[in-house]
Amino acid sequence: MKKYPIYNIQRFNCNSVNGDLYVNTFKNHLIDHSFVEEPHRHSFYVLTFFTKGSGFHEIDFDTYKVQPGSVFVMQPGQMHHWNLSDDVEGFVIFYSQEVYNLYFGQKGIEDYSFYHSINSVPEIIFDHAESKALLPYFNSLIVENQGNKALKQDKIMNLLDIIHIEIARKYSETYVYEKHSYNVKISEFEKLLEKNFREQKAASFYASQLNITLKHLNRICNEILKKTTTDVITDRIILEAKRMLMDKKMTVNEIATALGYDDYSYFSRFFKKNTTVTPTDFRVSK
After folding, report:
1. Could you give the maximum distance between any two Cα atoms of the chain, in Å?
2. What counts of helices (H) and strands (E) characterise the chain?
3. Can you tell me where the transmembrane regions are (predicted)?
4. Architecture of the domain delimited by 182-285
């Protein structure tokens, strides 16, 4: 039976000035860490930029094509794996929320639109000209990380921030992320949901915790996420169930209990209603 792990940054033997930051070329990363091709999760943020090669990248059960110019941004806890061609080249960066937020102080990593929500699309495609403009920042990051010059951490962190700014600009063009007064409430709702979805499944609970009516919370969810509050809660439960089903050491009954369902049959019906397959059939298909 195979268990799909959650890796922390230290697993990757950071040689950075900060143990919460890892920077590498894709070729060297895959040579040193071949195990990352299997499905797994991370306890940190992941940023990858592909400059050559092809393949696919599956993130939380959605599959994306890998091509030159592909950038992927992943949040802690997301399950992913890839199948890549032998000629793949690019860059991979791992970092914790703490290393970023402590350095910059007044702004946090979660302020970037692509990390704003668990529902944010993790893929951004840069065309040839845009990739060419982005490449020097990554190359400089590798050179700086390998060197030992004065103010090394300052340059690394500022290069990383510039990369985030360039990605954010492209992301806003691609997905038309709009600043909206509802975004604050959505963020508060998702944080509450992340803490409570295993125990609290009623939409009214979250509305109450946010000190707004359920009607208003539904309006916010529909405006920003194009879903009802109940849909958002359901999607989060189903996502976690899928992640847990990838761990073959847990029985379906244990997963149901861990997600707050004492009735295994009800959980199985709930899962099938929202995915069209039973939990067991989903597990077998993977």
Report:
1. 62
2. 11, 10
3. none
4. Orthogonal Bundle (1.10)
